[in-house]
Amino acid sequence: MNKQINIVAADVVQVGYSVGLYAKIRGIDNKKAYKELLERECFSLNKSRIEISPINLLSDIEIRDSVYRNFLSMLRLENKHKKYLNSIGFLDSSIDNELYKSVPKSYIKRRLIGYSMSNDYILSGIPGFYQEEDFNWCFSRTDGFFVPIYDKNGYIEGLSIHLDKEFNKSSDIWFSSNNKINGTSARNWPMRYNITENTESALLTDNFLLGNLIKETINAPVIAFQNISNSYTILKEIEDTNIKNITFVLRIPQCNNNLDYIINRMFRDLISLGYSLDIKYIKNYKDFFEKDFNVTYTLKKAA
Questions:
Q1: Quick one: 105 and 37 in the same domain?
Q2: Is residue 183 part of a domain?
Q3: Is 23 inside a domain boundary?
Q4: Are residues 31 and 93 in the same domain?
Q5: Which of 11, 44, 75, 250 has minimal Cβ neighbours within 10 Å of its Cβ?
Q6: Which residue range(s) make up the domain with 94?
């Protein structure tokens, strides 16, 4: 029986190398990993071709920060993306500081970068990176540029991609590699800046670029997010603060039914908790510099 298990386990490692990954994560040998995976029904002995779903735990934020900073240092920002950032109000210095970089279109370049990164880091657990059928590492490509998302301590949690063309009515997507070989899914990380224990008022926006622009220009406390499906993420971000006044800054062209639902849901959740809430709509990124940006918006829709 043991001999049979050894033979089958060897075959599994050849066809589905995720057994080895699972073993490494769990700190066990491949045979024990194989038995555990059988118990979890990740694959079946009755199938002629064994398929194993990736079992990648998200890497610690210190590791993600190191990987992404090294990764971005290998890239450049295309001129069209720099012009776009300048056109919406970013200075060259802030563009450099925020590490905006274009997503490489060249497949060969992505392969070479993936190979180089895999020599320095374990890329399992890093959203956006995955292995191809020849087991070499690569990363996802979407036309646009990377926007690093920082946590409150300045670590890069993940990368957002600002798209050259909108997809499914969204201008931003996460750099993720779910459903890829040895890939890892991104999370819906919010970005928070300039929020301390004494902060009582903050701006909230559904766009990371707008959040960064507010941070760079008026230095206001801000929380930014993208593509969330409920209010829980925002509630978790403010529950450990002294924030009492929240202003939603939303771009009119990007407003949609899902976002309206989230706003209304958050109003219902937060008004009952004693928060003072407001909404300000803008047509473009620079509108909040104008005097009429301070005109309040009625909360009748949320009531």
A1: no
A2: no
A3: yes
A4: no
A5: 44
A6: 61-174
The pair of three-digit structure tokens given for residue 31, joined into one six-digit string: 């045979």
The number of folded domains in the chain is 3
Amino acid identity of residue 4, one-letter, is Q
How many Cβ atoms sit within 10 Å of the Cβ of residue 268?
12
In a domain, 186, yes or no: no
- Encode 233-246: b = buried (16+ Cβ within 10 Å), e = exposed: bbeebbeebebbeb
Write out pLDDT tens, residues 43-83.
444 443 434 445 578 999 999 999 999 999 999 999 999 99
**In the block, residue with structure tokens 């993306």:** 81
Q: Which two tokens stand for residue 247?
A: 């202003």
The CATH number of residue 104's host domain is: 3.90.980.10
